[in-house]
Amino acid sequence: MDTLLIIVVALLAVIALTQAIRIFEISSKIKGTDNDIKVNDKDNNAQGWLMLLFLIFFFGAFAWMVSEYMELTLPVSASEHGNEIDSLWDISMGVIILAFLVTQPLLFGFAYMFRGRKTRKATYMEHNNKLELFWTGIPAVILAGLILYGLTTWTDIMFPEKTEEPIVVELYAKQFGWTARYAGGDNTLGFANVRLIEGVNVLGLDSADNNSSDDIISSELRLPKGRPVLLKFRSQDVIHSAYLPHFRVQMNCVPGTETQFQFTPSMTTAEMRMDNDVIEKVARVNSIRSAKGEDPWEFDYVLLCNKICGAAHYNMQMKVVVESEEDFNKWLKEQQTFAEML
Amino acid sequence: MEAHAHHKETFITKYVFTTDHKMIAKQFLVTGMIMGIIGVAMSLLFRLQLAWPDKEWPILEMLLGKWGTDGIMDPNIYLALVTIHGTIMVFFVLTAGLSGTFSNLLIPLQIGARDMASGFINMLSYWFFFVSSAIMVASLFVESGPASAGWTIYPPLSALPQAVPGSGMGMTLWLVSMSLFIVSSLLGALNYIVTVLNLRTKGMSMTRLPLTIWAFFVTAILGVLSFPVLFSAALLLIFDRSFGTSFYLSDIMVAGEVLSNQGGSPILFQHLFWFLGHPEVYIILLPALGISSEVISTNARKPIFGYRAMVGSILAIAFLSFIVWGHHMFVTGMNPFLGSVFTFTTLLIAIPSAVKAFNYITTLWKGNLQMTPAMLFSIGLVSTFITGGLTGLILGDSALDINVHDTYFVVAHFHIVMGLSAIFGLFAGVYHWFPKMYGRRMNKSLGYIHFWITFIAAYGVFFPMHFLGMAGLPRRYYTNTAFPMFDDLADINVLVSYFAIIGGIAQVVFLFNFFYSAFRGKKSEQNPWRANSLEWTTPVEHIHGNWPGEIPEVHRWPYDYSKPGAAEDFVPQTVPMSEDEIANGH
Question: What's the CA gap between A220 and A184, in Å, rounded?
């Protein structure tokens, strides 16, 4: 019945539109004009004004979004290299917002200023080498700066200085969950392969490899503040992506290959919870949650899957805790090693 | 000399198995439009899910059947919808629908040729596309669901039916469909290249070609060089899926079972895919930029500013597009040194892009702008090209990409710069060349209504997505409710969905205007926009061979608008140079 009604309404709408157009056409025929198809000065004027109005509306909406939505974006970085990324981000954003604020008014402003009139004649100008050199040169110079700055940052992140030996932790991905493995006392991960997965040995560790006996398998990721961490990634089935937005860390987990990312957490979970933006965020989220009758939320760092991996991709997550090195070591000591598990 | 003997035409030879480039162009357009309706409708369905994840929508059960039981969308069909939406929009609408339509229509008409170099190959190109479209649509109805590994179909997800149901029959049909699509695309592209190189009329030197033709020509070259690589990627994937090879698979345990595959690399697929995938962005974008150059110059009643710079930037963008594919792979674990190289080459693209943007803007300066619907869409295109292009400076920078890779920031970026710009180019082309295609005029007021609603809704959909990305929201999530940290983003998602629905409905205005005008619209005069290029010298009624008599000779470039000394504000390419002009060194 609903379907029938929808079809009838759609048909009626089409008929109404057809008749409206017919009226347009007949009236323009009577007047002897082509008003329904030909653009005249009235249209040019109206559309030119609309271009100007749109520009004002567009910039107004942009300003509104910045004021309303910027507070929803990620809080201060919880890692050392993340601060570098954020500075590069701010400068790049400054450049592109400036370019945006200059070019859009030129475009819509010219569309308004030079809207067609019978009395106007366009100026014939084919090219101007000086002008073109100018707007090839300016972007080139700005880009040279951005490229240099970007590459320096990238190199700093990807080739960190070897001042302190990083703690080696493996993040293991499979549909649809994460497992962490700490390298233990020797700080070396034991060999592992999917073909060795059996029973409690869910990560496929090689028990014959001496390095694996002191490995520690954990269902949450705990990291010490201020120590470099070398994350190594493996996947059991399809490509996943380990995304730690608060730390500005992301790396794919690729079956058959091992990938890695090194970074240094700079804020503990407790410290981040005291951050003003985070306090506001938690308050905002909890007012929404209480309105829906859901449990309140306490801020935690989180690891998300960010590469399409199947039906429950949207819920492939793991809690991440950053604490003092002391607390971290205490926690690590309490965990069972692989040898003890077997 | 009559070019072609008047042989009897039946319905079949005229409308179905036609070799006439003008009819083939219309076939591409209408097929592309039907695919476009499907693609956009899919996006509206998943926008419903994203904005109101807990709500029951009877329409979902009606359309999706068992995948929408009780009006709740199944996560698997959500993935299928985003996958097929992407595939259809990128390939079927914006590649075949845009380039297929206007390359076919305009290349012979604007260079002064009777038809394509090979009408038969041209016909094959359309029919491969048609069969490919039919298979893609058919794949929506298979028991295990359509392909659902994302439009980039990364293995192992796309290779393993155990990992996602869409990787069964649905993915097989996807691969078959895309293989046929590639054949269609290659046949078309080879034809375009040969036609442009060999069949230009007397006087039509390469530097007198309209920018549309330059854009189509370079696009065709990009297609010929890159589509075969996608074909090889698809072929190897077919082997892995069906014949037990291990090109992309290694050390996998799925659904509790260890696979025997050993030694392959999923990253190999990504290299092959993006070797096409990135040029593909420009295969989509360049024709739109070509169309807007032509439309803006004609309606500004001014020469396009910096013709040579425009051609140069098309060539520069095309060249660079082949050496930037790695920017899609910064976080795959690829050697960081390679990441540096790709950051460098990627950011370079901003230079020719900036040149193009400034040249468009300068073309408006001191013009006499005729605000036709085509002109409005072209101005809209320049706006989205700038807005979306600028965020490319963020994503192309490997260090910044780390944190927004695969978030909604990316979705915002590529929809604005490539999706919107290209679709606006498509609309501009339809409004501008409709009189050439159907000999009739479209209604102007409906065109204005269509433009303004579409333009505002489009920005309304994609601009807020930047902020979602900056909040760390990943794309391709069935719902954002699994993470409390995204709870306060729900309002943005509702806003975006409202705009999407408004924008989607506005397309009904266009469809109505299109089909009504095609059959009942006012008859067009021969040169309705008072344009210079050759297509407007052909008769309104289509004839085989395009010109009833001799093919006209060309004496000048196509952008002599408002030339000092000329009686009118346009001088068609067929008008010989006057003594004065020759003396002035033109």
Answer: 16
> At residue B64, does pLDDT exceed 50?
yes
- Domain assignment present for A173: yes
CB–CB contact B306 A127 (8 Å): yes
Would A118 be classed as within a structural domain? no
Which positions of chain A have pLDDT values less than 70? 1-3, 28-33
- In this predicted structure, the answer to whether residue B136 has a pLDDT above a threshold of 50 is yes
Cβ contacts of A73-77, under 8 Å, gap ≥ 24: A73/B467, A73/B470, A73/B471, A74/A245, A74/A246, A74/B403, A74/B470, A74/B471, A74/B472, A75/A246, A75/A272, A75/A275, A75/A277, A75/A278, A75/A281, A76/A267, A76/A275, A76/A277, A77/A246, A77/A247, A77/A248, A77/A266
Number of helices and strands in chain B (H, E): 20, 2
A65 interaction partners in chain B (CB closer than 8 Å): 463-464, 467
Express each pLDDT in B370-403 by its tens digit. 999 999 999 999 999 999 999 999 999 999 999 9
Q: Nearest CB to B478: which of A154, A197, A314?
A: A314
Interchain contact, B512 vs A25, CB within 8 Å? no
Instruction: With CB atoms and an 8 Å threshold, state whether B464 touches A111.
Output: no
Kindly determine whether residue A124 and residue B478, on different chains, have CB atoms separated by under 8 Å: no
What confidence tens digit (pLDDT) does each residue in B137-149 have?
999 999 999 999 9
- With an 8 Å Cβ cutoff, are B339 and A158 in contact? yes
Q: Which of B468, B481, B377 lies closest to B420 in space, CA to CA? A: B377
The per-residue pLDDT for A75 is 96
Size of interface A-B (CB pairs under 8 A): 368
For residue B267, the SS3 value is helix
Confidence band (pLDDT; 50, 70, 90) for B2? very low
Nearest Cα to Cα of residue A310 among A259, A217, A235: A235
What range defines the domain where residue A257 resides? Answer: 167-266+302-341
Residue A328 forms part of a structural domain: yes
The pLDDT value given to residue B1: 37
Which residues on chain A are in Cβ contact (under 8 Å) with B532? Answer: none
Which of 55-84 (A) contact B at CB < 8 A?
A: 57-58, 61-62, 65, 69-70, 72-74, 82, 84
Q: Does a structural domain hold residue A96?
A: no
- Residue B3, pLDDT above cutoff 60: no
What is the spatial distance between Cα A97 and Cα A105, in angstroms, rounded to a whole number?
13
Q: Do B303 and A126 touch (CB under 8 A)?
A: yes
Q: Which residues between 201 and 260 in chain A have a beta carbon less than 8 angstroms from any beta carbon of chain B?
A: 204, 233, 236-239, 241, 243, 245-246, 248-252, 254-260
H helix or E strand, kind and range, residue B448: helix B444-462
Residue A200 distance to chain B (closest CA, Å): 14
pLDDT on residue B289: 97
Q: Are B78 and B46 in contact (CB under 8 A)?
A: yes
Q: Dump pLDDT digits (tens) for B506-526.
A: 999 999 999 999 998 889 999
pLDDT tens-digit readout, B268-315: 999 999 998 999 999 999 999 999 999 999 999 999 999 999 999 999
Helix (H) or strand (E) holding B213: helix B211-242
| Contact between B424 and B381 (Cβ < 8 Å) | yes
Residue B87 sits at the vertex; the CA angle it makes with B84 and B93, to the nearest 5 degrees, is: 115
Q: Measured between CB atoms, which of B333, B339, B382 is closest to A107? A: B382
Domain count, chain A: 1
